Amino acid sequence: MHAYRTHTCGALRHADQGANVRLSGWIHRKRDHGGLMFVDLRDHYGLTQLVADPATPGFEVLERLRAESVVRIDGEVVARSPETVNPALPTGEIEVRVRAVTVLSEAAELPLPVFGEPDYPEDIRYRYRYLDLRRETLHRNIVLRSRVIDSIRRRMVEQGFLEFQTPILTASSPEGARDFLVPARLHPGKFYALPQAPQQFKQLLMVAGFDRYFQIAPCFRDEDMRADRSLEFYQLDLEMSFVTQEDVFATMEPVMHGLFVEFAGGKTVTPYPFPRIPYRDSIRMYGTDKPDLRNPLIMQDVSEAFRGGGFGVFARMLTTPSGAVWAIPAPGGGSRAFCDRMNSWAQGEGQPGLGYIFWREGEGEEGAAGPIARNLGPERTEAIRKQLNLGVGDAAFFVGGDPKTFYKFAGLARTKVATELDLTAQDRFDFCWIVDFPMFEMNEQTNHVDFSHNPFSMPQGEMEALESKDPLDILAYQYDIVCNGHELCSGAIRNHKPEIMLKAFEIAGNSPEFVEENFGGMLSAFRHGAPPHGGMAPGIDRIVALLAGQPAIREVIAFPLNQQGEDLLMHAPSLVRESQLKELNIRVVPPLKG
User: Fold this and answer.
1) Long-range contacts formed by 441-449: CB under 8 A, 24+ apart
2) Does the predicted model carry a pTM greater than 0.85?
3) Residue 194 · residue 182 · CB < 8 Å
4) How far, CA to CA in Å, does 432 sit from each of 134, 224, 273?
5) Neighbours of 166 (CB within 10 A)
6) CA distance readout (Å), 547 to 110, 143, 145, 151
7) What are 464-518's pLDDT values in tens digits?
8) How do strand 478-483 and strand 486-493 relate by DSSP bridges?
9) Nearest Cα to 42, choosing from 33, 51, 50?
10) 3-state secondary structure of 261
């Protein structure tokens, strides 16, 4: 017999009754039923119920051991009586009558419970992550992550991609977030950087003649933590040669659709081709470039109904060229209580309020009620109702001013309305592409034109557009995949022509010398024959979190950092020895106080 087990704790079935078996695992929980002790034994694969009585050899040992102690048991598989069968367990038709117990590792008192999975403070969970990972939900999430990555690899290979690894130690780059720097001992005063993404290397692979590349790539960005962001993360990094934007879409839609169908747990997944939504349309209709299409509400511009009208606040806003009024429909929200609640919510978000009209039979002008309806008059109010396709029992909320300053709040209001009215479907994964991102934007801090998305993207219209158009009107071949309101990836058709790259950086205020110094490797490569190419990089952590129904990516990462960027288990970041600093020619300077 094997030293530790003949079966795993998830393997035994009714057909195994009568078999003599050996199991090893953790004591999940114990129950004493008047002389009979029942023990749930757990391993990676599942649970098996053990049964022992005072005459059983090792009974006293089982009785003494704490939960999470590791034991090996020998015993006989017996059928459970019909009334004690547990249909929720694969092993629920049997139990193992214990004949011998060996203690493999005795557990001390636990700092957090494994059984039952009650909420526990994050610092304790991360400090004892090995215990946290024993809990069923988190354990299942990490297994899901492994299976998702395996499925991605298989699907990418089937699409003709080859997997390559790109450097972890590379050069610091001025684009994107802050770099993590690594001192170079052999080159005093110089530093490597951990890659924010393999962006330049994957493009160089295309220049090198490899047609389709992918990698499950680790990336590092020294930026503030939040629920969907960490200092280190993984992405499905990919690049393709001789492709248009539509080629990238047609290649990756079956991968993403198939992946989500495989792990969706019965939820509906958007069939491909996925909807394409231009960036500016997404902002106008949803108030975000990450729209949750499970939410059916679409905002509309109702400025004409307010222009020169009796509602003075909005009428004055519309006298400026940039002024507009957007409406958020609220089907089923036609009560003063709901409208007042939304208005209070808006004030809690730092807004002066949220204007509204609601339609209730027999109240106000033709059923329209609320301060706006009284001031606007029945004709204009009716025009709004028809434009929004609303009726009795419905409401509309309004946001006015310059859309550039209010669109984010309008998007939050759209989400809040749908949430409060329970309009957002919960049984779907809704995908879309956001396309036609602006190539440039105005940097409000410097009042200069800057790149809005990715400096390596090809502008639509190429050099002609850069030379003849207002920079803020130039669109790029840039795209995001969005699912259920989460941006899963960004991508682009790349700028593979040196003269266009130099011109684009010039518009963003960078000299040719700057580009040569920071991106000289790419420029040199492009001057030696570069194919048109494009790609994208879906985030592995975000994909798995979405499939697992988890709000934070830390719940699908085996050993995450906390919100302060600390590893409480391994005590990182930590101080290092003075001798180590001396080897690296580095001296630590305390931060200035005040």
Assistant:
1) 441/472, 442/472, 448/509, 449/507, 449/508, 449/509
2) yes
3) yes
4) 36, 27, 9
5) 19
6) 31, 12, 9, 13
7) 999 999 999 999 999 999 999 999 999 999 999 999 999 999 999 999 999 998 8
8) antiparallel
9) 50
10) helix
User: Residue 144 is inside which H or E element, if any?
Assistant: helix 136-158
The Cα 87–Cα 67 span in angstroms is 24
**Phi, psi (rounded to 5 degrees) for 156:** -70, -40
* Alpha-carbon gap, residue 67 to 54, rounded angstroms: 19
Task: Please return the burial class of 125, using the count of CB atoms within 10 Å of its CB with bins 0-12, 13-18 and 19+.
Answer: buried
**pLDDT for 80:** 95
- DSSP per position, 468-513: HS-GGG-BBSEEEEEETTEEEEEEEEB---HHHHHHHHHHTT--HH
Is 414 in contact with 297 (CB distance < 8 Å)? yes
Does an H or E element contain 385, and which?
A: helix 378-388
Q: What is the DSSP letter of 584?
A: T
* pLDDT of 437 over the 70 cut: yes
| Residue 494 to residues 26, 240, 261, Cα–Cα distance (Å) | 53, 10, 30
User: pLDDT digits over 502-512, tens only?
Assistant: 999 999 999 99
**Burial degree of 523 (CB within 10 A; 0-12, 13-18, 19+):** middle
Burial 419-436 (b: 16+ CB within 10 A, else e): eeeebbbeebbbbbbbbb
Query: Residue 590, Cα to own-chain centre: how many angstroms?
Result: 36
pLDDT digits (tens, 9 = 90+) for 281-303: 999 999 999 999 999 999 999 99
Cβ atoms of 343 and 330 within 8 Å: the answer is no
**Beta strand extents in 352-414 (DSSP E only):** 355-359, 368-369, 395-401
**Is 582 exposed, middle or buried, given 0-12, 13-18 or 19+ CB atoms closer than 10 A?**
exposed
> SS3 of 2, please?
coil
Kindly state the tokens that stand for 536: 């994208």
Count CB-CB contacts under 10 A for residue 188. Answer: 11
- Token pair 């420029």 is found at 523
Please enumerate, as own/partner, the contacts of 137-141 that have beta carbons within 8 Å and a separation of 24 or more. Answer: 138/555, 139/44, 140/548, 141/544, 141/548, 141/550, 141/555, 141/556
Question: How many C-beta atoms surround the C-beta of residue 150 within 10 A?
Answer: 10
